[in-house]
C-alpha cells in the first residue's frame, strides 16, 4: 500500500499577527432549517481577501468541542478566518438526531460554503473535517471542485462508517444490516440514529467521490486510533491525487489533551496552500 508521509514544521517566517480576532455567533439559513455557527475572523489589515476554513465536527460532536475551537484559534494566529458550525441534528442546529445522514451533512457543508463565499472580505476557502466530518469534507470538496475549494484537511476520516453499516454494528450495538431498525441508540442513551442513516451509509460512495477532488489534501491520523484505524486515512491518501498523510504515533481518535498538535499542522498547511507565505517544508 502506498503511504505518503509529510513532516510539517512549526517554523513561521511571516510577521506575527498582532491584531485580535473578531468572534461572533451567526445563523446560516438552509432549506431545511438554521445552522448555528461561530465566525472567527482575524482583524487583518485591509480586511479583504482573507482566507477562510470551514470546520466540520464529527459524529455526535458539535462546534464547541475542544478540537474544533483549537483549530479555529490556530488558524486565527496565521491570519485565516474560520466558520465552525453544528450539523443538522447536532448542538444548537435544526433537526432531530434520528434524521441525520451523511448526505444531509454534505448538503449542510455546501450551504456553509455558499454563506462563506458571499462574505465580501473572504478570499480562498478550505474545508477541514474530523471523523465523520472528514468524510463530509472529502465528499463536499469533490462535489464543489478544486476551483472553488482551495484545500482540504481530513482528521481521522471515518470511512469505517460504511463498513460498520454493512456489518450491522454501531459502537458495540448490533442490528440486522439487511433490515435495519427504525432507530439505534448508542450505549448510554445519549444519541440515537435513524434507519436512513444506516441505509444511506451502506451505499455511500465515499472514496469514489473523494477521488474526484484534485486539489491539495492533508490527512492527519493517530496510529493509536481504535475507533477509526489509521488504514482508513491511508486509503484516502491512496485515492486522492494530491493527498499527503501524517501518521501521529500514540494519538487517539480525538487527539485528547493534545489537540494543539493537529491544529497547528492544519493551520500551517492551509497557510501555505491558501497562498500565505510561510516556512513550511
- pLDDT < 50 stretches: 1-19, 277-281
Mean pLDDT: 90
Q: Roughly what percent helix?
A: 25-40%
In one word, what is the shape? Answer: globular
Helix count, per DSSP?
A: 8
Give the distance, in angstroms, between the N- and C-terminal Cα atoms. Answer: 24 Å
- SSE topology string: EEEHEHEHEHEEEEHHEHEH
Count of beta strands: 12
- What kind of sheet is the major sheet? 8 strands, mixed
Side by side, the strands of the main sheet go 1-2-4-3-5-6-11-12
Structural class, by secondary structure, is alpha/beta
Rg over CA atoms, rounded to whole Å, is: 18 Å
- Portion in beta strands: 15-25%
Tell me about this structure.
The protein has 281 residues and is of the alpha/beta class. Helix content is 31%, strand content 24%. The protein is built from eight helices and twelve strands. The chain has helices at 66-77, 102-117, 132-144, 160-167, 195-202, 206-210, 230-239, 260-273; strands at 21-29, 34-42, 50-56, 81-85, 122-130, 149-155, 169-170, 173-174, 183-185, 192-194, 217-222, 243-248. The strands form three sheets. Strands 1-2-4-3-5-6-11-12 form an eight-stranded mixed β-sheet, sandwiched between helices. A two-stranded antiparallel ribbon has the order 7-8. A hairpin with a 4-residue loop joins strand 1 and strand 2. The longest helix has 16 residues, at 102-117. It is globular, with a radius of gyration of 18 Å. It starts with 20 loop residues before the first strand and ends in an 8-residue tail after the last helix. The model is unreliable at 1-19 and 277-281 (pLDDT under 50).
